[in-house]
C-alpha cells in the first residue's frame, strides 16, 4: 500500500472520482457516476460523509454482531485518515458522498458548534446504520444541497447550503439516538465489561503505575472510540463516563479508607492520585465528608 495521500480540496476529491466541481467548497456526488478509484489511505482536510448503498457485511461489536444491517453512514472530519486496505487494483465507489471544506462554515452557527457532533470521531465499527425511511431523509437533505449547486451562486447560496448540512447532521443525531436504543442489549454488554475492567484495574498495581483510569484508556480497552463510549455510557446510565469512573473510585476508596494502618495520603497514592489533596477534594464532593472524617465516623 502506498503512503498516505492528502485530500485538501473539494475539487481534488471530485477529480479523483471523475466528477465535475460545481462549488469550490462543497460537493454532493452520486457515486454510481464516479470512475474507478485506486484503494489508498488518505488524510482528509475536508468533512466527508459517505452513504453506502450496499448493505455492509456483519460487523463485530464487543462479543456480538451489529443487529441493524441497512445502509451505512460513515463520517470523516479534517485531520482524520480514511480509505481502504483492499488487495485490489481499483474499486467502484457506491452510494453517495457529501464533502465540504471547513471554510464553508466560517462565521456560521454550524461552524461554531460542528465539533459537538461527536460521531465525526467514531470508529468505523461505530458507523450509523439507517433504515429505508431514514435514508430518504438523508437523500432529501443531499438534494437540497444539490439544488443550490445546480444554480448560479448568489448571496443566499452559502446560507441555504449550510442550513441543509446542519439539518442533515441534526437528523443524524436522532438516528444515532435510535441506534443506541435499538442496541440496548449490546450496550449492556459494554457496561458489564466496563465494570469488570474497573474491578480488575483497581485489583492490580496499575493505579500506582498508570494513575487513575481515564475515559480514553477504558474506551481503548473496550475497542471503542472515546466519544462513542462516552455517549453510550451517558445514554445508559445518565452519567458521563468520567463521572462513572469517579463513582467507582470512591466506592473502592471507601473500603481502603477503613484500613487504619495506612494514612489518607497512602490511600490516595495507592488509588492512583498524584496529589492527596485531589483525592480528598473528590471524596468530599461525593461523600460529603473528608476521608479522615469518614474514617473517624465509621469507627
From TrEMBL:
The keyword Transcription regulation appears for this protein: yes
Signal sequence residues: none
SMART domains: HTH_ARAC
Keywords on record: DNA-binding, Transcription, Transcription regulation
Classification via SUPFAM superfamilies: Homeodomain-like (SSF46689)
Transmembrane segments: none
Identification of the protein by name: AraC family transcriptional regulator
GO molecular function, one term: sequence-specific DNA binding
The keyword Membrane appears for this protein: no
Domain HTH araC/xylS-type positions: 196-297
Record InterPro entries: Homeodomain-like_sf, HTH_AraC, Tscrpt_reg_AraC-type_HTH
Amino acid at each position: 500500500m502506498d503512503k498516505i495521500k492528502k485530500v485538501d480540496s473539494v475539487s481534488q476529491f471530485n477529480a479523483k472520482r471523475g466528477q465535475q466541481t460545481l462549488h469550490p467548497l462543497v460537493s454532493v456526488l452520486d457515486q454510481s457516476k464516479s470512475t474507478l478509484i485506486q484503494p489508498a489511505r488518505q488524510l482528509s482536510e475536508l468533512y466527508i460523509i459517505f452513504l453506502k448503498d450496499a448493505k455492509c457485511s456483519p460487523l463485530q461489536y464487543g462479543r456480538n454482531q451489529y443487529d441493524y444491517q441497512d445502509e451505512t453512514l460513515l463520517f470523516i472530519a479534517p485531520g482524520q485518515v480514511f480509505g481502504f486496505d483492499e488487495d485490489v487494483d481499483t474499486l467502484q465507489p457506491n452510494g453517495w458522498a457529501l464533502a465540504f471544506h471547513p471554510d464553508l462554515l466560517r462565521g456560521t452557527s454550524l461552524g461554531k458548534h460542528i465539533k459537538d457532533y461527536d460521531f465525526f470521531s467514531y470508529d468505523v465499527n461505530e458507523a450509523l446504520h439507517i433504515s429505508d425511511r431514514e435514508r430518504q431523509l438523508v437523500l432529501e437533505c443531499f438534494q437540497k444541497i444539490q439544488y443550490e449547486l445546480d444554480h448560479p451562486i448568489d448571496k443566499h447560496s452559502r446560507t441555504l447550503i449550510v442550513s441543509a448540512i446542519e439539518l442533515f447532521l441534526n437528523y443524524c443525531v436522532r438516528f444515532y439516538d435510535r441506534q443506541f436504543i435499538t442496541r440496548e442489549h449490546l450496550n449492556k454488554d459494554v457496561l458489564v465489561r466496563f465494570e469488570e475492567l474497573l474491578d480488575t484495574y483497581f485489583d492490580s498495581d496499575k493505579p500506582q503505575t498508570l494513575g487513575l483510569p481515564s475515559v480514553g484508556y477504558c474506551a481503548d480497552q473496550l475497542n471503542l472510540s472515546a466519544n462513542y463510549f462516552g455517549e453510550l455510557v451517558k445514554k445508559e446510565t445518565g452519567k458521563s463516563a468520567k463521572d462513572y469512573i469517579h463513582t467507582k473510585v470512591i466506592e473502592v476508596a471507601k473500603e481502603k479508607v477503613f484500613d487504619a494502618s495506612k494514612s489518607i495520603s497512602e490511600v490516595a497514592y495507592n488509588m492512583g492520585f498524584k496529589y492527596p489533596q485531589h483525592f480528598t477534594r473528590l471524596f468530599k464532593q461525593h461523600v460529603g465528608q473528608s476521608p479522615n472524617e469518614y474514617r473517624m465516623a465509621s469507627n
